[in-house]
Amino acid sequence: MEIQIKESKIFAPLINKWLVETPEERVRQEYIKKLVNEYGYSINQMAQEVIVNNSKRGQGKARADIVIWKSEEDKKDGKAAFIVVECKSQNLKIHVEDYFQGYNYAAWAGATFFVTTNLKETKYFNINKEYLPKSLEEILAIPKADEVNDTNKILELLSQTKTFTREEFTRLLFRCHSIIRNNDKLSPEAAFDEISKVLFMKINFEKNNKGSIVFTKEKFKQDELTFEQNIRPNLKNTHLDLPYMQYLFMNTKNFYNEDKLFEENELIRIRQNSFEAILEELEKYNLSDTSDDVKGIAFEQFLGKTFRGELGQFFTPRTIVDFMTNILDPQEGETICDPTCGSGGFLIKSFEYIREKIELDIQYYKEKFKNELMGEDYDSLSESEQTEINRKLNNIFDLLNKEFEVSNEGNFESRLYDLSHNCIYGVDANSRMARTSKMNMIMHGDGHGGVHHHDGLLNVNGIFEERFDVILTNPPFGARIDKSLKITEADRFRDEVAINKLVRRYGQAYKEALRQTDDNIGNSVLSLFDTGKFTGLTEVLFMERCLKLLKKGGRMGIVLPEGILNNSNMQKVREYFEGRAKILFICSIPQDVFIAAGATVKPSLVFIKRFSQEEEDKYNNIQELVTEEINQKYIPDVDTLNIQYANRKKDKEYKECLKVINQRKEIEIKEKIKALFDYKIPIAKVEKAGITTTGAVCENELLDVEKEFNEFNKETMLWNSEKKEISYKLAKNGNLVRVIGNEEQELKSPKCLR
Description:
By secondary structure, the protein is an alpha/beta fold. Helices cover 45% and strands 16% of the residues. The protein contains 25 helices and 22 strands.
């Protein structure tokens, strides 16, 4: 079956009529095509716009968009429906409130399955006819036409909930882990590395085939035979003369070459029978089109259970990640970084958080243009006028949907492409974690391009001073960087092609960033940091690093050991940051939260804003005036001391007395600066933060704290976001125009669109 469109009309085979091609009708006919071509249902066992008995919409009968019966005979005999489909016009995301009306239609029609679709997103639900829905239980799929009378298959589908599917995928990853540990006798960490390689290969294969071919054991064996017979003989005596498994991995390494995720000589380090067994386990999932909320959350759950003990430091519990991201409220157009990204939790949440804002914005403009073009008198217009309006709307919706293309195709850079490629940055010194973070981001819908394997204290690629609006991080605690640790030639970035590319992108700022390493070869790493003069603690050095990575006025959320905030030996550290940033908020959380991840100290979540230029000038002026005032105040004391010890200024007693005066001056200066540069610091303490010592779910008091802080922030306006202001309007010729700041860009449909 093919969709038939002519002169802005679309053919509806279920009623054998040409209809005006509205956005809603287009979605409906596309889904009918899918039901016929992919599921095997016949036109004769379906109907559209079916009146649902016992319900009213306004004064008229409610109508279901598509109804499917088990057979043509059931339809003729007026038996209960089997599947009811509710169509939504090309929304980017269907929200839960969109479901209930259609669900009720399905229940009233006696259906077993309910589907809601906008083509971009399709969701499936089972119908529990005994209860009105309070919460909908999403399932994985609906049956095909040849399965409608298979009772066991129907029961299996009804039980395959999304929650079950996530758990199933998690269990599957553990089975893969076990295959490697049992067959290849690798450590848990090394086994995880090999799973990551196979997952990278599978995703790369399926993306290159646009999701049309799944990377299965059977497909691998077929391609291996072709490779060994027809291709490998021509590769003799070259570096490409490899077994097919290694050849495929080499192609995957090349694809991610710019990310430097794999060593040049890295190989698959498991037996081929292990590799094939893993492919067999994974073959039911096409990772190109498995929904992000299944594979992403499943992968996170796998990480959470795998990274215990030694690797626990790299995993920040999701409740903490969600809370910290929600508090700092990153906006579209802002650059976000985690210089110790571990498994990528903060980067993923930031990506998802902003993506949802974009989705809501696009939906707002769809409704806006729909109302503008249709107006209040749409129903009274002639058919030709309605057809023209619908043609324009379809074109506008197509262009707005293009804002969610991750690949940079067509005549403009989409908003999601910009978010994925220009706004999310992470780095981790552990190569395993850099790979894991990138894989985790791919599983959640991409945005992985800015993740690198590198020392987070040193500049790399797009990660350098005064570059970021938002930093979210959980740095390593308790370790110390010794004075003997030097910056070496190995730390120098030598990739001239990449350097030239980055200089073109960032200009002189990137040349300056390179000097951090280039000008300090042979010097101590500690010498790069002001706080390195009095401590080598990694958490302190990363606090300073994050502060310097922020733009002036930028904001940061960081997990810190509580001792940083209250131990007397950390006073100099606190004073250093008080002179450069404002504390926005401090939240004390229970030690339980990180015990499952291997931590042994009580943590706090600290939110800081680097001084804006105005705040920096104000603080410096206050400091200068107060220092001058207090110095003047103590001149008589110093003069008296100098007279008293006129001829004995080298005496120990004189030096001690002068030291006491200077200490009093220093204390008074600090106290007066604090009094003059005073502001409120909200502090909260929670006993339960959504996770127990074993990693189990519990009550989450952070949700209430977040609401309270957001109210406080609304009143006080703690920061100014660098939000990219994007709007859309219609040009006089009817085309869609995207407006970013003062720049306007007319968006045109690719040739494949009408």
